[in-house]
């Protein structure tokens, strides 16, 4: 990878670079960010859309490279974001629509793409407080599910999303798209099952797990006494016994139709809004 994606940050530039060639080495580096291995090596990821880029900057995220289509050049907000990127030592690329399409792998791409430094929260730094809710996902595999859950957790007022075990990458292009910008607002933590269980013991939380063997209706559980961790199982196999046994309560979402299970993102949304029902009002926003 070129210096623009080194973990120490991009080289400082003083002007916008115009790029029209798909063979440009910087464009090649950006396209490599569609691969998880290269994202991890670079410590970077892609986010599409001017609104997402602005939201990220307002929330204090570090932008390494701003890419925008020539057609967006005259837009005042694009000019402001470009000026801030340069002022912060980032790189600004003005590209053709063909180049932008090759980066995002879309025929009708967003006019603006930002390359940001990845940011992970740490499990050890979590100090759960009353009225906080956390989502813990065991080995979540589907990028769309994870992105939707991060977005839902943000909407419901959750405090963090914990990825337990080998999970899909929250910084993949598909997941970031599905978060609709909530990736910048919601702390994400990765940990092993052992680390999660050790943290649970001393964190003063109540772990509520959804499980097919759960005997309690999720609507009857008490979510008000302690900070709550909603523990959700893998899309195919559900929760392993080791995690289910360690939960303070196992609950079940009643179903009546022929479907034998809910989509993970839907089930998590149902649980989240029930767990936070006593805290949510129409005046929250």
Automatic annotation (TrEMBL):
Q: What UniProt keywords apply to this chain's record, in alphabetical order?
A: Methyltransferase, Transferase
User: Which segments constitute the RNA 2-O ribose methyltransferase substrate binding domain?
Assistant: 46-122
Q: What is this protein called?
A: TrmH family RNA methyltransferase
The alphabetized list of GO BP terms reads:
methylation; RNA processing
One Gene Ontology cellular component: cytoplasm
Q: Which SUPFAM superfamilies match?
A: alpha/beta knot (SSF75217), L30e-like (SSF55315)
Record has Transferase as a keyword: yes
Its family remark reads: Belongs to the class IV-like SAM-binding methyltransferase superfamily. RNA methyltransferase TrmH family.
Enumerate the Pfam families for this protein.
Answer: MRM3-like_sub_bind (PF22435), SpoU_methylase (PF00588)
A GO MF term: RNA binding
Which InterPro entries is this protein grouped with? Answer: Alpha/beta_knot_MTases, MRM3-like_sub_bind, Ribosomal_eL30-like_sf, rRNA_Methyltransferase, SpoU_MeTrfase, SpoU_subst-bd, tRNA_m1G_MTases_N
């Amino acid at each position: 990878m070129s210096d623009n994606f080194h973990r120490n940050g991009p080289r400082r530039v003083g002007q916008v670079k115009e790029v029209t060639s798909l063979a440009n080495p910087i464009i090649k580096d950006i396209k490599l960010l569609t691969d998880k291995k290269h994202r991890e090596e670079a410590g970077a990821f892609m986010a599409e859309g001017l609104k997402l880029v602005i939201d990220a900057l307002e929330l204090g995220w570090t932008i390494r490279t701003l890419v925008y289509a020539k057609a967006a050049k005259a837009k005042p907000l694009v000019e402001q974001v470009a000026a801030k990127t340069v002022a912060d030592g980032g790189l600004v690329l003005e590209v053709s629509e063909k180049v932008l399409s090759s980066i995002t792998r879309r025929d009708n791409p967003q006019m603006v793409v930002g390359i940001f430094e990845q940011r992970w929260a740490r499990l050890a730094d979590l100090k759960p407080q009353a009225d906080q809710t956390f989502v813990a996902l065991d080995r979540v595999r589907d990028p769309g599910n994870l992105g939707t859950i991060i977005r839902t957790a943000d909407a419901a007022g959750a405090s963090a999303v914990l990825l337990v075990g080998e999970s899909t990458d929250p910084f993949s292009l598909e997941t970031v798209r599905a978060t609709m910008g909530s990736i910048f607002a919601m702390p994400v933590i990765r940990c092993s099952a052992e680390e999660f269980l050790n943290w649970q013991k001393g964190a003063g939380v109540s772990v509520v797990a959804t499980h097919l063997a759960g005997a309690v209706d999720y609507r009857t559980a008490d979510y008000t006494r302690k900070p709550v961790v909603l523990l959700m199982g893998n899309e195919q196999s559900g929760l392993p016994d080791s995690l289910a046994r360690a939960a303070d309560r196992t609950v079940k979402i009643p179903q009546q139709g022929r479907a034998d299970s809910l989509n993970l993102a839907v089930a998590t949304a149902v649980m989240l809004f029930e767990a936070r029902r006593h805290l949510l009002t129409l005046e929250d926003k």
